[in-house]
Specification:
- The protein is 5% helix and 61% strand.
- By secondary structure, the chain is mostly beta strands.
- The strands form five sheets. The protein has a 19-stranded mixed beta sheet that branches. Strands 9-10-15-16-13-14 form a six-stranded mixed beta sheet. Strands 2, 3, 5, 6 and 7 form a five-stranded antiparallel beta sheet that branches.
């Protein structure tokens, strides 16, 4: 009896499982499969529709299989499980068609739809949108933009090569950059100051590969949102950042008789998270440079003429590494963090000859060598808060820049003629520097309407600079180097800037718009020495207004007039009291007591397109107070000492 009950229950369970385990799409489960075929034709012409899309779905529109028609408009879906299906057929320019139910059974597993007619779609375009890529150069209301990524010649080289192609900039063979004839430029990297440019702009530009640059913005009349630094204007180098979904990378190298470089980059993004990194190295082959210096002194009864000339062999190398990551918490909150390492070194070795003619003739020959090495890093982290209105934004940012420098120089006279004892020398210079800069920043943008937008924010920049310099002279009596205490010290310099700004973007109508704002900056600085030299401190306040009015004459023609005030604080190069004495006839040292330059500029700009060519004209007048220039004094023994002074006022007029 128990066995009969067991078999009965087993049989019933088997029937139940069989009933539940039917085909996936409603048909009984079977090892038999079928196929669906057909031909797609144009309903009007009767021609075959090639590459039409055929999608097989179940009765609930879940996609099962699919394919494309061939040159004759035919399609074939094979190994289709038995069941009931729908076919959706589509092609560009035709109305989508869904067939009646197609059922494959054990007795009829194959189904031929024969000819299927597609009706051409009736297109009614309410709005036509014409889009185009950005042009190579753009002339905007407050800046000129060079879209470097659109220039295929920027695949190799460095940032110096890119800036040479940027309007209004001039770059000499050594890499020194000028804007309208001035080197007092604030260079930004992705809208932020970078410690990379703290010591040597020309060396820093070599460490940025050209294929990483997205665009360069030249801003001659910056709005109040930008730092007041840079009396000539601002250069903003924008690099390529986020990658599209997936993984991408590149490896580039170039070899030339000037600069050789190699570059590798890798980026990956998945959903709301992405990372990127890379490395770049460059080096130059040894090459010779000829120098010539002449000075005539008529300040005394006896005219003296100093002439020096020489040949130096130099070589340099550098590296740059970076790593960045971003994470979109949601559609309104994003965190970005980037760190960049850099370093570069220049070595020089050469031979100089000097000749001084006053009451008697003096002559010397010297050999010299120098090494200048710098390294450091920049780390920045941003938090960006978006709102329902895409133009409304809150940004919190922190950045730290650290750079270290080592400068070693040695010079020795190997031959001399005359009774000038300074021509018999053997000395060493060493300078160890450290520059730390921290930035705290808050920016908020609020659009009250399509015609009125407000930007406001605050910023604090804390700069700490140390310069440990030492000068040693060879004592021919003892045969040893001895420290010259008059030119050996440890210098501490602090420069803190606290700023707040407000700027408005106003659109009066379709033709007129305005950018009006003001920036307040307070500067606090102090310097001290490790020795008994008295320190100093100072502070000053500046209100820097900016106004830009623009009128659109037509879709392609614009005229703009602007007024701005800027400040140029002396950099480390100008204030460092470290004296370069590898040549006693021509000594250079900084001046910690310099005041900042203050400039006022009025600019009139006109831009238009003429038969596909952009034409941009601008005229400006600039007045600069307390301008900083090199200042040369000649001692009684003929030694020249070059330092820097606030020498007066400069007025300049220019046309671009």
């Amino acid at each position: 009896m128990k066995k009969l009950l067991f078999f009965t229950l087993t049989f019933l369970c088997t029937l139940q499982l069989t009933a539940q385990y039917g085909g996936r799409y409603g048909a009984p489960q079977s090892s038999i499969t079928g196929k669906i075929t057909g031909t797609i034709l144009d309903a009007n012409s009767g021609n075959a529709v090639e590459y039409a899309t055929v999608v097989l779905t179940d009765l609930e529109s879940k996609q099962i299989d699919g394919g494309l028609t061939n040159a004759k408009g035919q399609f074939k879906l094979q190994e289709v499980k038995l069941g009931s299906y729908l076919l959706k057929i589509s092609f560009v320019g035709y109305a989508e068609l869904t067939t009646d139910t197609v059922t494959l059974t054990k007795s009829n597993p194959d189904f031929d739809l024969e000819e299927i007619q597609l009706e051409p779609a009736a297109l009614a375009l309410e709005t036509v949108t014409v889009s185009a890529e950005k042009s190579l150069y753009e002339n905007k209301v407050d800046k000129v933009v060079y879209n470097a990524e659109k220039d295929i010649t920027n695949k190799i080289g460095d940032a110096t090569d890119v800036l040479r192609k940027t309007p209004m900039l001039s770059v000499d063979l050594d890499g020194n950059v000028e804007l309208r004839g001035s080197r007092n430029i604030q260079i930004l990297l992705n809208g932020r100051p970078s410690g990379l440019f703290a010591n040597s702009v020309k060396d820093a530009l070599k460490s940025i590969p050209s294929d990483q640059i997205k665009s360069v913005e030249v801003i001659t009349s910056p709005s109040a949102k930008y730092d007041g630094e840079g009396s000539a204007g601002i250069i903003n180098i924008i690099t390529k950042k986020k990658s599209i979904e997936g993984i991408s990378g590149s490896v580039n190298t170039s070899i030339s008789n000037r600069t050789n470089n190699s570059n590798v980059s890798l980026s990956a993004a998945k959903g709301r998270f992405g990372v990127s990194g890379g490395g770049y190295g460059w080096w130059t082959l040894p090459r010779d440079a000829t120098t010539l210096f002449e000075r005539t002194d008529n300040s005394t009864d006896i005219t003296s003429i100093l002439s020096t000339s020489g040949v130096a062999e130099s070589e340099s190398f550098g590296y740059n590494g970076n790593f960045g990551a971003f994470y979109d918490l949601n559609a309104y909150n994003t965190i970005n963090s980037t760190i960049q390492f850099n370093g570069f070194q220049t070595n020089n070795i050469g031979l100089d000859q000097g000749f001084l003619a006053d009451s008697i003739d003096h002559f010397y020959t010297k050999d010299f060598s120098s090494r200048n090495f710098r390294n450091g890093y920049d780390w920045s982290t941003d938090y960006i808060k978006k709102f329902e209105n895409p133009d409304q934004e809150l940004v919190l940012a922190y950045q730290i820049n650290v750079s270290n420098s080592i400068s070693d120089e040695q010079a020795e006279s190997i031959d001399s003629l005359g009774n000038w004892s300074d021509f018999e020398f053997n000395n060493k210079n060493e300078n160890l520097g450290k520059n730390t800069e921290q930035t705290f920043q808050l920016d908020y943008t609020h659009p009250f309407s399509k015609k009125f937008k407000l930007e406001t924010g605050a910023k604090a920049i804390i700069r700490d600079i140390d310069s440990d310099y030492k000068y040693e002279q060879f004592n021919y009596n003892t045969g040893q180097f001895e420290v010259n205490t008059l030119n050996t010290d440890l210098f501490f310099y602090n420069q803190d800037v606290y700023a707040a700004y407000i700027s408005t973007n106003i659109t009066l109508n379709e033709k007129y718009s305005a950018l009006i704002g003001a920036r307040y900056e307070r500067t606090e600085l102090n310097g001290s020495y490790n020795s008994e030299i008295d320190g100093f401190e100072d502070s000053y306040n500046n209100i820097l207004p900016s106004i830009s009015l623009s009128r659109s004459i037509n879709q392609f023609t614009n005229i703009r007039v602007s007024y701005s005030e800027r400040i140029q604080r002396p950099s480390l190069f100008y204030i460092n009291p470290y004296a370069t004495i590898n040549d006693p006839t021509n000594i250079r040292l900084g001046n910690p007591g310099l005041s900042p330059e203050l400039s006022r500029q009025v600019e009139l700009a006109y831009s238009t397109f003429v038969k596909g060519t952009m034409l941009s004209l601008s005229a400006y007048y600039k007045n600069t107070q307390d301008i900083i220039e090199s200042y040369l004094t000649v001692g009684e023994n003929g030694n020249g000492i070059t330092t820097f002074q606030n020498v007066g006022t400069n007025n300049s007029i220019g046309l671009s």
